[in-house]
């Protein structure tokens, strides 16, 4: 799923929930930070951390790819 760089956390969560046919709060979303630790995506600051990781990867010549793990809440 492609996302725009200026998307908000709420918009992103809505898109993911819609894709899987779930309500907001039914899914727990996690992403891997630059050290490989899985971070629970709970609010805008977590989302900004994920986006910052993409910018760092792009600056190093890597493909800016955000992997998200979805679990039922």
Your description of this structure?
The protein is of the alpha+beta class. The chain has one domain: Roll (Ubiquitin-like (UB roll)). Helix content is 38%, strand content 19%. The chain has helices spanning 9-20, 44-59, and strands at residues 27-32, 38-40, 68-72. It has a three-stranded antiparallel sheet, with no helix packed on it. A hairpin with a 5-residue loop joins strand 1 (27-32) and strand 2. The relative contact order is 0.21.
Quick gist of this model?
The chain has helices at residues 9-20, 44-59, and strands spanning 27-32, 38-40, 68-72. By secondary structure, it is an alpha+beta fold.
| Low-confidence sequence ranges | none
Task: Tell me the helix content.
Answer: 25-40%
CATH architecture: Roll
Top CATH class: Alpha Beta
What's the helix-strand series? HEEHE
Structural class based on helices, strands and sheet pairing: alpha+beta
- Major sheet size, sense and barrel closure: 3 strands, antiparallel
Q: Give the termini distance in whole angstroms.
A: 21 Å
Mean pLDDT value: 90
- Residues in β-strands, percent: 15-25%
- The protein's oligomeric status is single chain
- At the fourth level of CATH, the homologous superfamily is Phosphatidylinositol 3-kinase Catalytic Subunit, Chain A, domain 1
Question: Key terms for this structure?
Answer:
alpha+beta, single chain, three-stranded antiparallel beta sheet, 73 residues, Ubiquitin-like (UB roll)
């Amino acid at each position: 799923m492609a996302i725009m760089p200026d998307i908000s956390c709420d918009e992103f969560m809505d898109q993911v929930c819609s894709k899987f046919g779930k309500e907001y709060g039914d899914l727990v979303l996690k992403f891997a930070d630059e050290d490989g630790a899985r971070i629970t995506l709970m609010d805008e600051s977590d989302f900004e951390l994920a986006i910052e990781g993409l910018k760092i990867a792009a600056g190093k010549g890597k493909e800016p790819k955000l992997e998200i793990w979805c679990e039922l809440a």
